[in-house]
Design brief:
Two copies of one chain form a homodimer. By secondary structure, chain A is of the alpha/beta class. Helices cover 31% and strands 21% of the residues of chain A. A seven-stranded parallel β-sheet of chain A has the order 8-7-6-11-9-12-10, sandwiched between helices. In chain A, strands 1-4-3-5-2 form a five-stranded mixed β-sheet. Chain A starts with a strand and ends in a 5-residue tail after the last helix. Chains A, B: Pfam families: SpoU_methylase.
Chain lengths: 268, 268
């Protein structure tokens, strides 16, 4: 349902107003997705319900193939670049925004119980950087991880920038929060996962690991790493590096480890 | 040699003025490094000559162990936060800057000829994004690549942000430019490298590759990839991904491939 908007103060596009300011506060029931690539994933591969779309008029032609995928009653707001920028509060170069519902968070036990017998899960502890969390979800989607678990300190994957950096990966890979790193390990063990904790001080070397049927990969933040009590009760694994330069980005680390776990043993 | 600066217009700190504006223009003979981590690499592991250092007074105590590593005649300018911000032109939170000399670029033949018999080299084609180039150098340093080759379209690794993202990796791994991707492949072949070109359409699968004694890994930009004539004359290799989500960041890709090449076969 197309609705042309000419007044930036139109009450129908309230949800698109002052995007950055609301990003900072956080949105409890909704999230904002931006850009054509992300909208395509949201429409085709995601579990989230789209409430509405706001498009620059100049983008309509290029997006024609996607719009019929929206439910007929979903509003497609269109506006000039100028009106769109005024609504959003900054120049929105991509000219493509959508508002979707977060849905109800799934308890971790329920999420893990519906995974297949052979499964790969990622657990994030204390990852406060949206670029890193977005990058990890991108890798999780690329290597077919079935779920991502987040502790309370890990930032919101449905933050606009994290979605963009993930190239829509956060919309594809199911995720849920757990109360703590310890609760994460307990839930994974209860669901018969071998829990691998990546750490520079890990006892085993990643390239020697043969994944079992259900494997979970835990990642901590670049400085502090995973907490000692998690390292004490899991299989710790390191990625050896060249002398004197012991430094990898955590998203890159997730890519290296997921690639190894996805393609070793099973040799797909 | 410590020199306290109290006047932002002091002619001795000319090289630190308007850092961002000069970043955009580019510096022909010098570069700017920022932050404690990068300064540490510059002092301890790099081949570059430091011309001077500019430090916020509040940082002096924390950096005390590093400063004796500077040549005695190298100026260590110190200033208050306020004066430092006025010199640089924006709030320089890290409070640590250095100016170093680029040195004379080494011809590719000379660089390759002095590498050991067993060597791993990275070649970058058309990579215009400083985050990606910085990220790739970080991985090259972490996995002990001996050199990085850049075509003319690849951006400057000595740009301030690329150095920072590389965590100093661009200061550690030798690099040089070649006139074109074709010249890169020719120089590598002449130096007995097997040239592996990463591409989503690659014939071989990365996890099956056993690296030979001298291996070069070529990477192109995320959209266009490597040019067809390069793919036609090299061994093309792909990283298989999960159905429907065929997308990896190029820096992550470099990390996955370098990890595989560094630890397979030799099983270090």
């Amino acid at each position: 349902m197309r609705i042309a908007i000419s007044d930036p103060d139109d009450s129908r596009i309230e949800a698109y107003r002052a995007v950055r300011e609301r990003d900072l506060v956080g949105r409890q029931h909704r999230f904002v997705a931006e850009g054509e690539v992300v909208l395509r994933v949201l429409l085709n591969q995601s579990r989230f319900e789209i409430e509405s779309v706001l498009l620059a008029e100049s983008r309509l032609d290029g997006l024609g193939d996607m719009l019929p995928l929206l439910a007929p009653e979903t509003p497609i707001y269109t506006a000039s670049r100028q009106v769109m920028d005024a609504i959003v509060g900054f120049p929105i170069h991509r000219g493509v925004l959508a508002i979707a519902r977060r849905g109800v968070p799934e308890p971790v036990e329920s999420l893990l119980s519906r995974l297949p017998e052979k499964a790969l899960v990622v657990g994030l502890v204390g990852l406060a950087n949206h670029d890193n969390v977005g990058g990890i979800f991108r890798n999780a989607a690329a290597f077919g991880a079935q779920a991502v678990l987040l502790d309370q300190e890990t930032c919101d994957p449905l933050y606009r920038k994290a979605i963009r950096v993930s190239v829509g990966g956060v919309l594809v890979v199911p995720f849920t929060r757990v109360p703590s790193a310890e609760a994460m390990v307990r839930a994974l063990e209860a669901a018969s996962f071998e829990v691998i904790a990546l750490s520079p001080s890990g006892r085993d070397v990643l390239s020697h690991i043969k994944p079992v049927r259900r494997t979970a990969l835990l990642l901590g933040a670049e400085g502090p790493g995973l907490p000692p009590d998690v390292l004490a009760r899991t299989r710790t694994v390191s990625i050896p590096m060249s002398g004197g330069f012991d430094s990898l980005n955590v998203a890159t680390t997730s890519g290296i480890a997921l690639h190894h776990l996805a393609f070793t043993g099973s040799r797909r």
